[in-house]
Design brief:
Radius of gyration: 17 Å
CATH architecture of the largest domain: 4-Layer Sandwich
Shape: globular
Bound molecules: zinc ion
Structural class: alpha/beta
CATH topology of the largest domain: Metallo-beta-lactamase, Chain A
Number of domains: 2
Largest sheet: 7 strands, mixed
Helix content: 10-25%
Number of strands: 12
Strand content: 15-25%
């Protein structure tokens, strides 16, 4: 799910965004993590992008020595909402810095997209759920196994600090749509006991939400990862 920033950006770009993503074994930290789990990039068969912003889809492709850009997961099918791919190709001044064609055009050139429309089961136990607001065709990803469900929220709720309804990123194109989406998704998460995964949180990797009648939605973090050093 999502592929991080990738390795195609120069030092200035990485410095602007404070990104440390170099891998010790593979091109990026993502390939290192896949290797640590006992797999290779060639083994990855499915990549699901919540959306195509550079920090979520940059690792879809990889720049080799000499400059050639190739698919980072050469045997994978890449999944995104059909509307998101179209949106990424209709650039305007507000969004063009976030949608960088080398992150997604090679996927199309290789015929590797599976474009979905709406709430869809991608694989048994893996479902995508439209969660608009950050961008119009953002999706979150539900993974169910053994009676439990985890929701990979993407930029709908980037950190646990964004769980309260009005805490919405300035990046969001339609914050009032985000507000409605959050209320719907978090109500469902509380009702169905989903574990929530926070993609941008440096301290809290995942947690659950419970309803607080006075304060609204409150996170209940249950597991943490160390802050980036
Ligand atoms: Zn984004």
């Amino acid at each position: 799910m999502d592929s991080g920033v990738g390795n195609k950006q120069n030092e200035k770009f990485l410095d602007i965004y404070g990104i440390e993503n170099a891998g010790a074994q593979g091109p990026t930290a993502l390939e290192d993590a896949i290797a640590a789990a006992g797999h290779r990039s060639e083994d990855v068969r499915w990549v699901i992008n919540t959306h195509l912003h550079f920090d979520h889809a940059g690792g879809n492709t990889v720049q080799r020595e000499g400059g050639a850009v190739e698919l980072a997961f050469p045997n994978a099918v890449y999944v995104v909402q059909k509307g998101e791919l179209e949106f990424a190709g209709s650039l305007n001044e507000r969004i063009r810095a976030s949608y960088l064609a080398p992150n997604f055009a090679p996927v199309g050139a290789a015929g590797r997209w599976r474009l979905v429309d709406g709430e869809v089961d991608v694989l048994p136990g893996i479902r995508v759920l439209p969660t608009p607001g950050h961008v119009p065709f953002h999706q979150s990803i539900l993974v169910s196994d053994g009676g439990e469900t985890a929701c990979f929220l993407g930029d709908l709720v980037p950190t646990s600090a964004h769980l309260p309804a009005p805490w919405i990123m300035g990046y969001d194109l339609a914050p009032l749509v985000t507000l409605e989406t959050k209320k719907q998704v978090l109500a469902r998460a509380a009702r169905e006991g989903w574990q929530l995964v926070f993609e941008h949180d440096p301290a809290c990797a995942r947690g659950w939400v419970v309803v607080d009648e006075k304060k609204g939605w409150n996170p209940e973090p249950v597991d943490t990862v160390p802050a980036a050093s």
